[in-house]
Structure formats: C-alpha cells, structure tokens
Prior knowledge:
alpha/beta
Amino acid sequence: MPTAPANAHVHGLSDATASDRTLRRFLHGLPGVDTVGLEARAAALGTRSIKTTAKAYAIDLAISMIDLTTLEGADTPGKVRALGAKAVNPDPTDRGTPRTAAVCVYPDMVAVAKEAVGASGVKVASVATAFPAGRAAIEVKLGDVREAVAAGADEIDMVIDRGAFLAGDYMTVFEQIRAVKEASGEARLKVIFETGELSTYDNIRRASWIGMLAGADFIKTSTGKVGVNATPANTLLMLEAVRDFRAQTGVQVGVKPAGGIRTTKDAIKFLVLVNETAGADWLDNHWFRFGASSLLNDLLMQRQKLATGRYSGPDYVTVD
C-alpha cells in the first residue's frame, strides 16, 4: 500500500518531500494566511440561516458524522459498551435516527467497542501514538497503532509531534506520519495537529499539507485536551487545504474538527463551512467527521423538537 498519494509524482509533489530542504521550501512557499480575511469569512458563513426542512436534513447528517468519543483514564468496559450501543441506536424512541459514524476509544478498549457495535456499520476508531501529547519514541507509537489495528480498529487517530513541527523539523513529522500510515494497514488514518498549540494559521496550513503529502486519509484539528480546539476559522483553513490538494493531485482527504463543538447550532455552522468551502463532495461521513461526545445529545433533542414541536430536554436522552 503506498504511503503517499499515488499520483504525487505526476503532479510534482514527490519532489517536495525528497529532502528536508525541499519540504521546507515547499511549505514556506505556500501562500500566507490572511488572518483578518479568514476569520471574517468564517464569521460570515456562521451567520447563514437555514429553513426547517434543511435543518432536519442537517441534523441527521451531523448525527451520521459524529465520532462518539470517550478518552478518559476512567473509561471502563461498561462505559464503552454503553457508548457503542448509543452509537448504533442513538434514540431508542425513534429507530429512524441515523447511526453515528464511529466510536472513538483508546487502543485497549478497541475490542470492547468492536463487540459493542457488532455488524452495525459503525466504525471503531482508536487514538494512538501516545495520545494526546505524542511524547514517545516512534517504536512506542507504532506499537500503539499495531495494538489498535490488531484489536480490530477501522480507523486510527494519530497525533503529530508538535515539538518537532514547532522546531521546524518538518521531515521528522512527515516520516512519522508515513510510518504510522504503513502500520495502520487497511485502517484509515486521521492525523491530529492540535491546532491550539501550533500558534499561527500559517503553521496550520503547513501542517495540513505535511499530513496530506504523507498519506493522511483525514486531517483533524485537535485532541480535545487543550484550551483551544476546533474553531470555524481553523476548520475553514483546513477545508481550503483539502480542496486545493484535491485540485492539484486528484486525491480527496477528509477533515475532522474535534473538541468544543457542543450544540446543533455549532454543528450546522460547520456544515455550512464544508459546503461553501470544500463543496458537497465532502458532505458525507466518509469525508467529514465531528469529534464530539456531548454534541449528539443536543442534536437528538433538536431532532425530537422538530418531530414533535416540543423541546423534550436532556432527561429524554441517555447520559454519557
């Protein structure tokens, strides 16, 4: 399995990763980000209103895009089984409710999650590579990935070495992503940048291109474990990156904002960003995900309100 886009050479991108020098030159040759323009566009798109019928569609679409997540030291098999059951059947009072895209857990809980979702079609994603800090030797990181894959993970969410990236050691970041991609086998790879620690939008753009050049199937904003996680602006920037990457290479890469997206209103704003920036091809859970836990409950409450005309409140959805 190739660890970089199969047609990278055709488009000249293989030259960009030939050495540390060429990679640095490529990344620093990317257009600089207009901070004011980026944030203004994200804010403007966030003011779009949608009609009731479109809202119902958007809610179901957002539910289908959720990676229902539990990443706590206190996770138990029982909690993971309950989460898996909720992913498969989010609203027991309405069997027409879409399933979530995936359940996301630590590697040691993959087997439990896999059994819980069964043959439902809900994927099991696992964070790996010494999540969330990523401070471990590459052998440890790859062992983490192989453990998750062996247990049945369909998807791997890795964290980049932010220390290496911020020190300007882009080739180390690139090579580690390639190694994780290879270790992931058939599992799809989501590459987490921890945008809140990258300091600048230019760095987020560069990290996005490193991830895509190295073979990421998804680029992901955050671990959800730091103060600043997914924002409309940083997600818009990543959506521009995947759009431009496909235009140049023909290879489509997904986007996953994670952390801090808690309400239906928030989710719909992000879906508008997707549609208006990358386009309708990304409005599918194969190419766009929400990394969230509490978001699902609000979506379910809003869905019930549209169906019944009444706001049922949090007591009518399961507690995570």
